[in-house]
Write a structure and sequence with these properties.
Strand order of the largest sheet of chain B: 3-2-1-4-5-6
Oligomer: heterodimer
Number of strands of chain B: 12
Structural class of chain B: alpha/beta
Structural class of chain A: alpha/beta
Order of helices and strands of chain A: EHEEEHEHEHEHHEHHEEHHHEHEEEEH
CATH superfamily of the largest domain in chain A: Crotonobetainyl-coa:carnitine coa-transferase, domain 1
Radius of gyration of chain B: 25 Å
Strand order of the largest sheet of chain A: 8-7-6-1-2-5-15
Number of domains of chain B: 2
Helix content of chain B: 40-55%
Largest interface: A-B, 153 and 155 residues
CATH architecture of the largest domain in chain B: 3-Layer(aba) Sandwich
Strand content of chain B: 5-15%
Helix content of chain A: 25-40%
Number of domains of chain A: 2
Shape of chain B: elongated
Largest sheet of chain B: 6 strands, parallel
Radius of gyration of chain A: 25 Å
Number of helices of chain A: 13
CATH class of the largest domain in chain A: Alpha Beta
Order of helices and strands of chain B: EHEHEHEHHEHHHEHHEEHHHHEHHEEEHH
């Protein structure tokens, strides 16, 4: 059986802010067409490359059919394609968006769902602000929490902010589709990148709203890997970093330190009293830092996990290809291209009956030549 | 029209952040999410009095079940028969031990969509590993890559992957609901939070496999694409240590952005070099350019500078913190994105919520009900789902069950 979305037709008019959302839907089997100008999708210029082929585009543009359309010459053909979709996902810088009147489209097809992903929504003083991933992350609150006291605030690696708005775009499209299946009604669904980022900041809003109750400060400045709870941090082992934590069971961690003979005064009964909890955490972390420095990273991580302690080895990307867990689950997947297959990430979820799968990464064809092949007829 | 997912029944065994964030998303869109908790388990992040719990469990109904109690377990089995979705993020095997594993549930409820969000997924040598977001960040490469060159002790400053695992689970659930329309059947979905995290390095992993190049941390530079300047710069006011510092992000993605930035800076001599007109030239002198901009921004109030940059066509944004989002951000204020929840609980006090960042034109999601205490909705849930009457429920409670 094919993927769970095999009955869904999507037109992908996204820019960087939401292309990840279409990837999620396309890899779940939706029939996705991504139009681009005859000069090519500008996102094909994003690195890294294999030869002259953008690996960025192979990853984010997976499982789609690419068609070229010459606008405005082929406006009528483009409109014809758009009217046959179940779902269109757009962004302000997406192909053909400025030439398209989505109100007219929905008048022609009242069941159409349009997901419109913009940096700041449709209204407001910042609505036209330019916000690539770094700027979006700064305004959204993600950058302020990342980095250390001796570094500037840092963006997350790659385009993690736009992967959040992308994920919300996928949810928006699927929820819109659910309504359409139930009630036969389409609609416009707006997603704000800014709000998407602000909704995924873990402790940041909690600290501001509940700092009195938590007896903490309203804003926690950036402080390296030290978690807001003070109980998770990366320490340097002999050969790399290890994310260390005495949670969720301090006594279990203490027993391990006693086995190693490095418990110092942590066995003092005073540390069992609630008023000494913070002191206990600080003392434990101080001992752990010195103890970890005497260990090798991977064996320490594996031993901690055998003891059910949620340590994490800070794995460099170079070692990810050989990861034993990913290998055992046969996780990495090939994308079939016109040249050699390209290996990359596999499924983020595993469906027992309608499996995730990467489609062929094919060539671009003029829409005028392949409209029939696409086979999208207006559903009665 | 009502909210998009009204009528969808979700039985929610999740805890901490990743799982509850998935079900929060469904609940915000109108699904009937029944959060299972118990007095015994309501400690730490599972305690409805804990702010962490308040953040991720709004819009859900609260049912108390003590799974060590036979009659509560039997009730739970009946609830599973009524559910569209059963979801947990325990380590692998916990729900099986409670007698409500997927194979058992689907015998009586073949339409059930049963999603498990364990740290490592089912199978593999790490399958039983215990993980929280910092663990996943470390193992998936996110900690290594989000840093400055030469350091492994920075990483993402919040539990990014927990949020994303939740969003990906919501995608999977909605996709499985779509599939069920044609197949008539539910299915099992295995989400490995680790695999979700590794996915985010997608292009870099492809680069590793295709070219043998292993990505390294790049601080605020883009790992592959040419953009300069592309960094955060300190402005006014100065802080007390890191607290209260003000920074602005400036990202010149094109040569035109750079020309516009020069104009904002008043065309200083250091920026007028001809080789800076191309991004290649600017990248060669990246440190010099960063220094020059830092000198300029050091005398600028950051919100004012952001407005001037944006007016000139330069992508720039203040590095906002939680207080800024609540008190200075006009976009969030316009949409009332951050707001008090009207219903103040005598037990839980005043609570707040951020809105779902999705705005439906026909099925708006404007309901924000407060997080409920353990078992607060026992009567309404068991009445609606199983047709039980209040007297029977109160009797069970008086005997120490449903708590």
């Amino acid at each position: 059986m094919s993927g769970p979305l095999s009955n869904v037709r999507i037109i992908d008019l996204t820019d960087e802010k939401s292309i990840y959302g279409v990837k999620l839907l396309a890899d779940l089997g939706a029939d996705v067409v991504r139009p681009e100008p005859p000069t090519g999708d500008p996102l094909r210029d994003r690195g890294p490359f294999k030869g002259n082929q953008s690996l960025w585009h192979i990853f984010f543009g997976s499982s789609r059919r690419f068609v070229s359309i010459d606008l405005p010459t082929e406006q009528s053909l483009f409109h014809n394609l758009l009217t046959k979709a179940d779902l269109i996902i757009t962004g302000p810088e997406g192909f053909g968006v400025s030439e398209t009147d989505f109100d007219v489209l929905q008048a022609d097809n009242p069941e159409l769902i349009v997901v419109d992903v913009r940096s700041f929504g449709r209204e407001g003083p910042w609505k036209d602000y330019l916000a690539p991933d770094l700027v979006a992350g700064a305004l959204g609150g993600a950058v302020a929490t990342t980095g250390d006291a001796d570094t500037p605030p840092l963006k997350n690696y790659g385009e993690l902010n736009f992967m959040v708005s992308g994920a919300y775009a996928a949810i928006a499209g699927l929820a819109g589709l659910y309504v359409r299946r139930e009630k036969g009604a389409g609609q416009v669904v707006d997603v704000s990148v800014h709000e998407s980022i602000a909704s995924c900041l873990e402790h940041v809003l909690m600290f501001y709203w509940y700092h009195d109750r938590m007896m903490r400060e309203p804003v926690l400045p950036r402080r390296g890997s030290l978690h807001w709870s003070n109980a998770y941090v990366v320490f340097q082992a002999k050969d790399g970093g290890v994310m260390v934590t005495p949670t969720p069971d301090f006594d279990r961690q203490l027993a391990w330190l006693i086995e190693e003979g490095v418990q110092e005064d942590l066995i003092d009964p005073k540390y069992d009293l609630p008023e000494h909890l913070v002191e206990r955490i600080m003392k434990t972390m101080d001992i752990l830092k010195r103890w970890v420095a005497t260990k090798e990273a991977e064996p320490l991580f594996l031993e901690a996990q055998q003891r059910h302690s949620p340590y994490g080895w800070v794995i460099p990307l170079a070692q990810m290809a050989d990861n034993e867990q990913l290998r055992a689950r046969e996780w990495f997947a090939d994308t079939v291209t016109g040249a050699e297959p390209v290996k990359g990430p596999g499924a983020p979820y595993h469906f027992s009956e309608t499996p995730w799968a990467l489609g062929v990464y094919g060539d671009t064809h003029p829409l005028s030549e392949v409209m029939e092949d696409i086979g999208w007829e207006v559903r009665s | 029209m009502s909210r998009p997912l009204e009528g969808v029944r979700v039985l929610d065994f999740t805890h901490v952040l990743a799982g509850p964030f998935a079900t929060r998303c469904l609940a915000d869109m109108g699904a009937d999410v029944v959060k299972i908790n118990s007095i015994k388990r309501a400690t730490g992040a599972n305690d409805p009095l804990h702010p962490y719990y308040l953040m991720w469990n709004r819009n859900k109904r609260a049912l108390a079940l003590d799974m060590t109690h036979d009659e509560d377990r039997q009730l739970c089995e009946r609830l599973c028969e009524q559910a569209d979705i059963v979801i947990d993020n325990f380590s692998v095997g916990v729900l099986d031990r409670w007698g409500i594993g997927f194979e058992k549930v689907r015998q009586k409820n073949p339409r059930v969509i049963y999603i498990q969000m364990s740290g490592m997924g089912e199978g593999g040598p790490w399958s039983n590993f215990v993980t929280y977001a910092p663990t996943i960040h470390a193992l998936s490469g996110l900690t290594y890559l989000t840093s400055v060159p030469g350091r492994e002790d920075i990483g993402i400053g919040f539990s990014y992957n927990d949020h994303q695992a939740g969003l990906h689970a919501a995608v999977a659930i909605l996709a499985a609901l779509e599939a069920r329309r044609s197949t008539g059947a539910g299915q099992h979905i295995d989400v490995s939070q680790f695999e979700v995290g590794v996915s985010f390095a997608g292009p870099s992993l492809m680069d590793l496999f295709a070219n043998g190049r292993a990505a390294e941390p790049t601080a605020n530079d883009l790992p592959y694409d040419d953009a300069c300047p592309h960094n955060c710069y300190q402005g006014l006011p100065k802080g007390d240590g890191t607290l209260g510092e003000r920074w602005i992000a400036i990202a010149c993605m094109t040569d035109a952005h750079w020309q516009a930035l020069k104009s904002v800076m008043g065309h200083p001599d250091w920026a007028s070099r001809a080789d800076f007109d191309s991004v290649a030239g600017r990248l060669e002198a990246r440190a010099e350019i960063d220094s020059g901009i830092a000198v300029f921004t050091s005398d600028c109030e950051v919100y004012d500078l952001m407005a001037r940059c944006q007016a000139a066509g330069v992508p720039a944004g203040v590095v906002q913190d939680g207080e800024d989002l609540n008190t200075r951000d006009p976009q969030l204020a316009l949409y009332q994105f951050l707001h008090k929840i009207e219903d103040v609980s005598p037990l839980l006090g005043q609570t707040w919520a951020d809105r779902l960042p999705i705005r439906f034109s026909q099925t708006p999601c404007d309901v924000y009900e407060r997080t409920k205490a353990v078992g607060e909705d026992n009567v309404s849930v068991l009445g609606d789902w199983l047709g039980m009457d209040e007297t029977a429920i109160r009797t069970a409670e008086s005997k120490g069950r449903l708590q």
